[in-house]
């Protein structure tokens, strides 16, 4: 081991608080842990060094003895001292410090936790198709989902009535088998109980020992006005039931807005293409325009309106989600050119052309020219 002081190894001052020492060790332990640096002897030594320093400085009595007498005061590295058994088992080193190594051991503490206890159920996802009208106005949907629920016959234990799961004889209920490998002990899932910690000798006939059965459940989902495609609505506690009587997970409803035959959505605005006649474009007038709420509003077309011109209907768009007010509706007018003319209509158009000084081309079918 290094001759550096424990404070220097952890990178803290001699008067450092317990939290500062813990934070410093956390950083070094994660950085130099053997599982992240397999085969790297230098990292292994730094990990051991940091662990030795932390084991002394985290204990008030050991720290006081170390401050007075140095390493000799805590017997570090001596017979029967810290160095003799520090690395035979992770639980010997970390004990109540397992939160640091959750990333390495799946959240389990060094000695292994009993896996037969209640566990939270899985979250579920449901894709819901929503019409543009419902996205704008809001609506309540009823959806039906298949999910795992606690078996009512066995209460979630998985064992038949009158019996109960027994503790696994191989792992003692921990769900893990621990084997020593050099300095460390490695935990693997118990093959007998498959990590559950218990064995069911007489399984429930309804759930076949799983403790869970699949059922269909109907749930009411409220779609708020202004929701967008891809939005996620969380329904707490409506996911699957957890094993061994654990709580339900959550349900996430993901919305997908269906394409509308008239309106195109752009954020909180709506775009509507509206055809008008040639005479309306020339002379102007009032037209009726549909809105997303199923109503119609009057809109004024001024004289000389061109095709592609955009008019705004303020406040007739999509509501702002969780806020106040609405977007706008933009009406894009498209002038509809008549394909067939009566004799009288043609005479009037030709007269209009002459009055405009355009004259008439040789072909009667081509009165106007594109420029």
TrEMBL record:
Pfam families: DnaJ, DnaJ_C, DnaJ_CXXCXGXG. A zinc finger (CR-type) spans 138-216. CXXCXGXG motif repeats lie at residues 151-158, 168-175, 190-197, 204-211. GO terms for molecular function: ATP binding; heat shock protein binding; unfolded protein binding; zinc ion binding. Zn(2+) 1 binds at residues 151, 154, 204, 207. GO terms for biological process: DNA replication; protein refolding; response to heat. One of its GO terms (cellular component) is cytoplasm. Binds 2 Zn(2+) ions per monomer. Residues 5-70 form the J domain. Zn(2+) 2 binds at residues 168, 171, 190, 193. Keywords: Chaperone, Cytoplasm, DNA replication, Metal-binding, Repeat, Stress response, Zinc, Zinc-finger. It is found in: Cytoplasm. Its cofactor is Zn(2+). Residues 138-216 form the CR-type domain. Homodimer. The J domain is necessary and sufficient to stimulate DnaK ATPase activity. Zinc center 1 plays an important role in the autonomous, DnaK-independent chaperone activity of DnaJ. Zinc center 2 is essential for interaction with DnaK and for DnaJ activity. Belongs to the DnaJ family. Participates actively in the response to hyperosmotic and heat shock by preventing the aggregation of stress-denatured proteins and by disaggregating proteins, also in an autonomous, DnaK-independent fashion. Unfolded proteins bind initially to DnaJ; upon interaction with the DnaJ-bound protein, DnaK hydrolyzes its bound ATP, resulting in the formation of a stable complex. GrpE releases ADP from DnaK; ATP binding to DnaK triggers the release of the substrate protein, thus completing the reaction cycle. This is Chaperone protein DnaJ. It comes from Leptospira fluminis.
């Amino acid at each position: 081991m290094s001759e550096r002081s424990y404070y220097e190894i952890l990178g803290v001052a001699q008067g450092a608080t317990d939290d500062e020492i813990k934070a410093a060790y956390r950083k070094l332990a994660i950085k130099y842990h053997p599982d992240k640096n397999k085969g790297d002897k230098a990292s292994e030594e730094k990990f051991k060094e940091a662990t030795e320093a932390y084991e002394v400085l985290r204990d008030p009595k050991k720290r006081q003895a170390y401050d007075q007498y140095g390493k000799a005061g805590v017997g570090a590295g001596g017979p029967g001292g810290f160095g003799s058994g520090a690395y035979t088992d992770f639980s010997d080193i970390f004990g109540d410090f397992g939160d640091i190594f959750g990333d390495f051991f799946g959240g389990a503490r060094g000695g292994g936790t009993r896996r037969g206890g209640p566990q939270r159920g899985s979250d579920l996802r449901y894709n819901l198709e929503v019409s543009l009208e419902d996205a704008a106005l809001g609506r309540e949907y009823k959806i039906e989902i298949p999910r795992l629920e606690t078996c009512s016959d066995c209460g979630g234990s998985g064992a038949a009535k009158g019996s109960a799961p027994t503790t696994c004889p191989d792992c003692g209920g921990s769900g893990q088998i621990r084997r020593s490998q050099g300095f460390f002990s490695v935990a693997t899932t118990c093959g007998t109980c498959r990590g559950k910690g218990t064995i069911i000798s007489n399984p429930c006939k309804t759930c076949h020992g799983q403790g869970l059965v699949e059922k269909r459940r109907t749930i009411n989902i409220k779609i708020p006005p202004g929701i967008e495609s891809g939005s996620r609505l969380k329904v707490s506690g409506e996911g699957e039931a957890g094993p061994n009587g654990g709580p339900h997970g959550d349900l996430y409803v993901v919305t997908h807005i269906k394409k509308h035959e008239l309106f195109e959505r752009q954020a909180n605005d709506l775009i509507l293409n509206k055809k008008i006649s040639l005479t309306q474009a020339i002379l102007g007038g009032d037209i009726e325009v549909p809105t997303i709420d199923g109503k119609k509003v009057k809109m004024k077309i001024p004289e000389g309106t061109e095709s592609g011109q955009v008019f705004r209907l303020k406040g007739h768009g999509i509501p702002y989600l969780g806020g106040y007010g609405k977007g706008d509706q933009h009406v894009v007018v498209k002038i509809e050119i008549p394909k067939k003319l009566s004799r009288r209509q043609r005479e009037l158009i030709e007269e209009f052309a002459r009055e405009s000084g355009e004259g008439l081309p040789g072909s009667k079918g081509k009165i106007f020219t594109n420029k």
